[in-house]
Write a structure and sequence with these properties.
Structural class of chain B: alpha/beta
Largest sheet of chain A: none
Helix content of chain B: 40-55%
Oligomer: heterodimer
Number of helices of chain A: 13
Helix content of chain A: over 70%
Number of strands of chain B: 12
Shape of chain A: flat
Largest sheet of chain B: 8 strands, mixed
Radius of gyration of chain B: 34 Å
Largest interface: A-B, 90 and 78 residues
Structural class of chain A: mainly alpha
Distance between the termini of chain B: 76 Å
């Protein structure tokens, strides 16, 4: 096997291990902590008696937690019941939403969150790296100072506060809606009309998210590019008689993107935090909003499912980042 | 959010200490410190300066809610009819307590894990880092929400959750710092003489890691404050205390926007910005004070005054040796080159009036100890000085044109196609993410636009083959090359455009002796075969003796002596050259005693006013201490800068 193949396999195995640990961790978290949601859930007054029986059955509440030493089958335990349910895509039933399957609730919310995150991420990465590059190249100029000040301020501004400011601004000056994904109670004449309505709802949440991420990407790119620009191979490229544009395009950019890829991946946790806050302010029906509502309503199955989804999504995104890194950097074959 | 901390705080040299003076000299750090002190003062004196006690139960009527700013309520009232200003002042307590307590927990856990993982290394270290990597991947906020939701929303729980979950980033940082300290000479030495782990940790590792951890902790405070306000805003704050995040939560969710009550929203938001900005500025300031980095790079725009103006007449160049005409007009003439570097204490002169000629096909050696200005001289010739360096005066005439006066386009055309450089330490001089062959063909195609991609690639392979690298290695990346191979590839790269002059800047440093000989053989063979002139920059007198026609000995930014190689060896004129040769082993005269030169070369910021060699010179006399010696022309086209050679001195 080639070095690169071994590298990718190693990363994939690590991701699988982490996902498995997350799944196990998720199981114990909701049982070990005070309040034991599984038991509490089975007494939740909002549930129908049939649901409670189903719940006790599903959680295997009468059984041992991890391994069953009493009966013949050691795997006849709460933990393995949970794993079994999970493998069937069964995340349980919501307490608050009257017995709706958690998996379906999460699926719907996930689509909305992706609508919010994806455009903002792309915009922030494109503009953040471009700005960071220019700021580093023109280090010490007024452009650099403005960009740095902007980033510092964006970094200090809590995401939810920025979102509130933009919500007020959008509603007052641009006549944009303040909540939800679509205008409630409207029937659309065409698909185009529906799209425009969604875009109007998305504008300010996307802008909030983009601004928050942008400052950070800019800062990271700037410090990375400064580092790369002072490397010996840049001096070689300059001595070869290449123009500044070609030095940046052919020699600096790819090297600068290496740490960026890693940092964007590490930053995914930050993205999650941002999504929760932006969704909350704009009542955007995504995963973040669902998580916060689940907390308020002590809807533990939803909370558990959302946590699992967020954690697994971040682990997988990290795996993708590792793969991109392996593709960009020939040295991983020996690392 | 963790990424900012990682990007700004990097492992630093262990000698670094946080100096208060240095911190205060950085305006941003000072501003941060003052802003933080104001917030702390407000938190401590809250009962004295707040107009009302926000924790006192009050009876409110509907008229009290969301009242605009007035004399009684400078920042108006909130959704509960309470005074916003008072809540704001008391809110500082919660933010700061959570911020500092959580950061302390993070630092203790992360620091311990990092030091243990870095110091013990091996299996336990790897295992600990595996756990750390796991926690780095798990999104903190999701875990915080779940745990606070299940464990209960008390201030203690919030502090614990934020503090305990943040450790992974710190652990990573501390580990890499510990690893670098562990391998340092003084630690290895301490271990070699039998010092115990406790001693090494206490005396060497912890002092080296601590300053970095302090700077990091301040940045963690800002993260913790943001986390606390986020949790409070989404309704997971401690309901029994007043915090800024909670004020925003209540105002936002209880109609402040529809009531137009900006005073209930803006002040708590800006208060969060205030403390986060304060701690970020302070932390960044501390980090900069610890690890001052001149953030300069190779692509900065050349300063207007970085090159002297175009000379009025390029014809009137004074020949260097009026009494001995040597065959052929010089291809390259350097005249009175002066180079300075910026420094906090003013400009430092690295090259102080260097002049020399190079003829077609000739090989000259530029010899000197490190810091003598030899590399700076050759980089200045091609305007490739590192950032902060500039040519103050002088001329570099190449084929009749002053390189220092060319415009950028003309300069690019000359670079590499006519003057190429073999850089020292080819380790980093080749781009790690591009194939070696591509880097060679790129040079060819830059200066010959008519050649096709395929033809250039073939030519590159040919060049590599010529320096002894098999063709298929052209498609490989530099990291698969050995040190010697990389240096060969660098030579192939320098030959790519068939230049008139090759400058070899210490081409064999960091290679082992056998490879050194091979590389020099290769370089000398190819340059004479292709008729190129060569400037060999080196500290190795042996190399120069074998390979060079003429030798220039540099010391303290000056050319101490210039002579044909065999004459220099036979009859060194400058006391420095004499001592240098005496300190160099000669295989033909094994009985000769080797003598070292007492003292060290002068530092740029501490140059003697007279002759730079005066402090170490055994033949020093009073004139040397006050006056810089000019270059005296001697017989056989030799020159030396020493007052001993002054005709007047000989008369005395």
């Amino acid at each position: 096997m080639t070095g690169r193949g071994r590298y990718l396999l190693g990363k994939a195995v690590w991701a699988i291990v982490v996902v498995f640990v997350v799944i196990t961790f998720n199981f114990f978290l909701f049982r070990v902590l005070p309040g034991d949601p599984a038991k509490a859930g089975s007494r939740d007054p909002r549930l129908s008696p049939e649901s409670i029986i189903a719940l006790r059955e599903r959680f295997g509440l009468g059984k041992p937690v991890f391994l069953n030493f009493e009966d013949g089958n050691p795997f006849d335990s709460q933990y393995f019941a949970y794993l079994g349910a999970l493998s069937r895509g069964d995340l349980g039933m919501s307490y608050a939403f009257r017995d709706e399957p958690v998996a379906e609730l999460i699926g719907r919310a996930l689509v909305n969150t992706i609508w919010l995150i994806l455009p903002a991420q792309i915009l922030a990465i494109v503009f953040g790296t471009a700005l960071g590059l220019v700021a580093a190249w023109r280090r010490g100029t007024s452009l650099d100072v403005v960009a740095l000040t902007f980033s510092l301020f964006m970094w200090s501004l809590p995401t939810f506060f920025l979102a509130i400011l933009l919500l007020v601004f959008g509603a007052s000056y641009l006549d944009l809606p303040t909540a939800g994904r679509v205008t409630i109670g409207v029937t659309y004449g065409s698909f185009w009309e529906e799209l425009v309505d969604i875009a109007r709802h998305l504008a300010m949440p996307t802008l909030s998210f983009t601004l928050v991420l942008l400052g950070e990407y800019m800062l990271i790119m700037r410090s990375t590019v400064l580092e790369v620009f002072s490397e010996d191979y840049i001096l070689t490229a300059k001595a070869k008689g290449l123009s500044t544009f070609r030095i940046i395009k052919d020699h600096a950019l790819r090297n600068a993107m290496l740490p960026m890829v890693t940092l964007i991946a590490i930053n995914l946790a930050f993205t999650v935090s941002g999504a929760i806050q932006v969704e909350q302010v704009f009542s955007w029906p995504g995963i973040g909003n669902m998580t916060v509502d689940a907390v308020a309503q002590r809807d533990y199955p939803v909370l558990q499912g959302a946590f699992l989804l967020i954690a697994v999504a971040v682990v997988l995104a990290n795996l993708v980042a590792d793969m991109v890194y392996g593709w960009l950097d020939p040295r991983v074959t020996t690392a | 959010m963790t990424a900012i901390v990682e990007a700004t705080v990097q492992p630093v040299a262990p000698a670094a200490r946080i100096s208060l003076r240095r911190l205060l000299s950085r305006p941003l750090g000072l501003v941060g410190a003052i802003m933080l002190l104001i917030a702390i003062a407000a938190a401590i004196t809250a009962p004295l300066i707040a107009p009302y006690d926000p924790y006192a139960p009050v009876r409110v009527t509907i008229q009290d809610i969301f009242q605009g700013p007035s004399a009684a309520h400078p920042l108006g009232t909130d959704d509960g009819g309470k005074d916003v200003l008072s809540s704001l002042i008391y809110g500082a307590r919660v933010s700061l307590i959570v911020g500092f307590a959580a950061a302390a927990i993070t630092t203790v856990i992360g620091g311990l894990v990092g030091i243990i993982a870095g110091y013990t290394g091996g299996r336990p270290g790897t295992l600990l880092m595996g756990v750390t990597d796991f926690f780095l991947v798990i999104p903190e906020i999701a875990l915080q929400i779940v745990i606070v939701a299940i464990a209960g929303q008390s201030l203690i729980n919030i502090i614990l959750v934020i503090g305990v979950l943040g450790w992974a980033t710190t652990a990573r940082l501390v580990r890499s710092q510990t690893l670098s300290v562990r391998e340092r000479k003084f630690v290895l030495r301490a271990r070699a003489i039998g010092a115990g782990d406790v001693h090494i940790l206490r005396r060497h590792v912890i002092p080296a890691v601590l300053p970095l951890m302090i700077a990091n902790t301040v940045l963690i405070v800002s993260l913790a404050i943001l986390s606390e306000s986020t949790l409070a805003f989404i309704g997971l704050g401690d309901p029994t205390v007043i915090s800024w995040g909670q004020m925003l939560n209540f105002a936002f969710n209880r109609g402040a926007i529809s009531a137009g009550a900006w005073w209930a929203l803006i002040p708590p938001g800006m208060a969060i910005v205030w403390v986060v900005l304060a701690t970020t500025l302070l932390g960044t300031g501390l980090e900069e004070a610890l690890n001052p980095r001149l953030k300069r790079h190779h692509l900065e725009r050349e300063r207007r005054d970085a090159r002297p103006p175009r000379p009025l007449s390029s014809g009137g160049l004074e020949p260097l040796r009026p009494n001995v005409p040597l065959a052929g007009a010089p291809l390259l003439s350097v005249r009175d080159l002066v180079v300075e570097f910026e420094s906090p204490s003013g400009p430092l002169r690295a090259v102080d009036g260097v002049s020399f000629d190079l003829r077609r096909g000739e090989t000259i050696g530029l010899v000197g100890e490190s810091g003598s200005g030899k590399t700076t001289t050759v980089l200045a010739m091609l305007r490739l000085l590192p950032p902060g360096g500039r040519v103050v005066s002088g001329q570099v005439l190449f084929d009749g044109e002053d390189l220092l006066a060319l415009d950028p386009g003309e300069l690019r055309a000359v670079r590499w196609s006519r003057l190429a450089i073999v850089f020292q330490g080819a380790m980093n001089a080749l781009n790690p993410v591009r194939r070696v062959g591509d880097q060679v063909s790129e040079a060819i195609r830059t200066h010959d636009t008519s050649i096709g991609k395929r033809a250039a690639a073939l030519q590159a392979e040919e060049l590599l083959a010529r320096v002894g690298i098999v063709r298929r290695k052209a498609r490989d990346y530099p990291h698969t090359y050995s040190g010697g191979m990389r240096q060969r590839a660098m030579i192939a790269l320098a030959l790519a455009c068939n230049p008139d002059v090759i400058i070899a800047d210490e081409p064999t440093t960091a290679l082992d002796v056998m490879i050194q000989a091979q590389i020099l053989e290769l370089l000398a063979g190819l340059s004479s075969e292709m008729g190129m002139a060569t400037i060999m920059v080196t500290h190795d007198l042996g190399v120069v003796g074998q390979r060079c026609d003429r030798v220039l000995v540099m010391y303290g930014g000056l050319i101490a002596e210039e002579a044909e190689a065999f004459r220099l060896y036979a009859h060194p004129q400058h006391p420095y050259t004499q001592l240098l040769l005496a300190s160099f082993p000669d295989l033909t005269r094994p009985d000769r005693r080797l003598v070292g030169i007492a003292g060290t070369p002068p530092r740029l910021d501490d140059m003697p006013p007279g002759c730079p060699f005066a402090p170490r010179c055994p033949k020093v006399f009073d004139r040397c201490l006050v006056e810089k010696p000019p270059a005296y022309n001697l017989s056989h086209g030799r020159r030396a800068s020493c007052f001993l050679l002054d005709p007047e001195h000989a008369d005395v």
